[in-house]
C-alpha cells in the first residue's frame, strides 16, 4: 500500500468481531475496511475489540474522529429487537452487539461521524429501535440478497443489483446521481425502519439499502459493501471521501478540546 497519510489525519474506529479458533477467542477485522479508510477516506483506522461493556462508548469516542461499523457474517441477536426467531445456525457475536449498539447511540448523541456497512447498517437500525428480517429471501416479494459462495472473491463482491436513491437524498448528493449498481452479500435486512432513520435508497424489490440518521451530521448506512476496492469505484470513493472530510472536521474540534479525565 502506497498511501502515506499526514500525522494529523483523522482516526476512525473500527469494531472487531470475535472468531473462535482452537478454543481461543480472537478479535478480527476485515482488511478491506481498513484499507478503504486509509486510501479513500484519508484516515487512520483504529480497531477496537468486541469486548462489550468493558469499553465504555464515551471513553472510546474521546479518542476517535469517526466510527466505521463494518460488515460481518454474524447477525445481530434477535433479542435486541422484537423480531421473528433467527435460524438455528445463525452465527452470533454477542460481544460485538454489546459494544456496537450502545456505541452507535453515543456516537450519534455526540455527532461523531459514522458510516455503517452491511451488519453495521443493520446494527444502526436496531440501535435506534428498528427491526430486521432474518432471512430476506424467504420474504414474499423480496429477491435473494445473499452472496454467492461458489464464485471467486472478486465475483462475490461484484455488481449484483441497482439501488435508486431519493433525488434529495444525501447519497444522491454525495455520488452525484440517483442510482448506482452495488454488490450484495446479506441474508438479513431492515424490516421496521427506526424512527430516526430516513430511507434514502432501495433495491428494485423494495429492500432498504441506504439510510441517513436525521439531525446527526454525517451518519449514513449502506447495506452493500462500498469498502470493496473503494478507490476503484467512483461512487464508493465519493462516499468514503465525504466520510473522511467529516472526520477531519471532528478531529479539528477534538484536538482543540482534549478529553477531560473521567
Ligand atoms: N450477517 C448479516 C450481515 C452480512 C454482512 O455483513 N456480510 C459481509 C460479511 C463479510 C464482509 O465483511 O465483507 C447478514 O447476513 O445480513
UniProtKB/TrEMBL annotation:
GO terms for molecular function: hydrolase activity. Keywords: Hydrolase. CDD domains: GATase1_2 (cd01745). InterPro entries: Class_I_gatase-like, Peptidase_C26, PuuD-like. Gene3D superfamilies: 3.40.50.880. SUPFAM superfamilies: Class I glutamine amidotransferase-like. PROSITE patterns: GATASE_TYPE_1. This is Gamma-glutamyl-gamma-aminobutyrate hydrolase family protein. It comes from Dongia sedimenti.
Amino acid at each position: 500500500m502506497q498511501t502515506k497519510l499526514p500525522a494529523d489525519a483523522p482516526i476512525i474506529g473500527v469494531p472487531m468481531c470475535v472468531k473462535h479458533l482452537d478454543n481461543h477467542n480472537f478479535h478480527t477485522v476485515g482488511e478491506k475496511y481498513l484499507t478503504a479508510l486509509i486510501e479513500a477516506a484519508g484516515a487512520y483506522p483504529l480497531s477496537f475489540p468486541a469486548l462489550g461493556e468493558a469499553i465504555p462508548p464515551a471513553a472510546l469516542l474521546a479518542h476517535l474522529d469517526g466510527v466505521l461499523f463494518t460488515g460481518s457474517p454474524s447477525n445481530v441477536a434477535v433479542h435486541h429487537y422484537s423480531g421473528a426467531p433467527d435460524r438455528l445456525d445463525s452465527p452470533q457475536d454477542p460481544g460485538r452487539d454489546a459494544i456496537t449498539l450502545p456505541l452507535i447511540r453515543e456516537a450519534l448523541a455526540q455527532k461523531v461521524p459514522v458510516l455503517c456497512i452491511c451488519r453495521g447498517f443493520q446494527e444502526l437500525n436496531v440501535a435506534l429501535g428498528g427491526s430486521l428480517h432474518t432471512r430476506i429471501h424467504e420474504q414474499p416479494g423480496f429477491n435473494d440478497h445473499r452472496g454467492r459462495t461458489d464464485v471467486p472473491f472478486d465475483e462475490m463482491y461484484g455488481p449484483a443489483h441497482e439501488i435508486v436513491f431519493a433525488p434529495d437524498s444525501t447519497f444522491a448528493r454525495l455520488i452525484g446521481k440517483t442510482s448506482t449498481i452495488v454488490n450484495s452479500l446479506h441474508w438479513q435486512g431492515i424490516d421496521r425502519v427506526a424512527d430516526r432513520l430516513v430511507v434514502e435508497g432501495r433495491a428494485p424489490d423494495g429492500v432498504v439499502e441506504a439510510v441517513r440518521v436525521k439531525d446527526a451530521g454525517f451518519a449514513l448506512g449502506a447495506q452493500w459493501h462500498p469498502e470493496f476496492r473503494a478507490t476503484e469505484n467512483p461512487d464508493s470513493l465519493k462516499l468514503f471521501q465525504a466520510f473522511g472530510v467529516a472526520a477531519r472536521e471532528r478531529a479539528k474540534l477534538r484536538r482543540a478540546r482534549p478529553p477531560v479525565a473521567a
